[in-house]
Amino acid sequence: MSALTALNTNTFLIINNWAGKSSILDALTIFSARYAIYILFTVTALCIVHLLYRRQWRPVAYFTASLVLSFIILFIASKLFAHDRPFVNHHVTQLIPHAANQSFPSDHSTASMAMALGLLIFTRFKKTAWLLTCVATLIGFSRIVAGVHYPLDVLGGFITAALGTLLAYFVYRGHSGKRTVRFNTDTAE
Fold this sequence. Notes:
Elements: H1 3-16, H2 23-34, H3 36-53, H4 57-80, H5 86-89, H6 107-122, H7 126-145, H8 151-177
C-alpha cells in the first residue's frame, strides 16, 4: 500500500469513526450528504434565473461553460482512476445507502463546488457563492463521515470543479481582454 493510499484510508477511518456515535450528528450528516445538494442547486438555479430575467447572458454562458468543463474533467478522471468506494474494502459505518460503483472523484463534491465556484467567479452573487462554497465543503465532508467516499475522492471532486471553472475563466479573460480597434474612416480636412 502506497503512503498516499495509506494516508487516504487512515484519514477516512478516523473521520468515518464519528458516524454512529450521536444521533444528532448522524442526522446532520445524512441530511448534508444526501439533501444539501438540492438546496445548493435550488439557490444556484434562482441566481441563474435572476440573471436570465435581467438578460445577463454572458455570466450565464460562462457559468454554464464552467459546469460543462467540470463534468467533462470528472468523466475523464473517473475513467483514468478506477477506485472502489470505502465500504467495498473496509468495515465502515455507512449512514446512507450507495451502489458499490466508482468513487473517484466524488460527483457530489464536483457538482456542488462547480456551482459555487461558477457563481463566485462569473456572477455578482459573491456573498451567496461564498456561502454555497461552505455548503459544498460540508457536503463533501459529510460524504466521508457517511462512509461513501474517501477524503481524496472529495478533494478530487473539488479540484475537478476548480479546474473546470479555471478553464472557463481563461476563456472569459481571453474574451474580455480583447480590445476592438476601430479605424476612423472619416477624413477630416
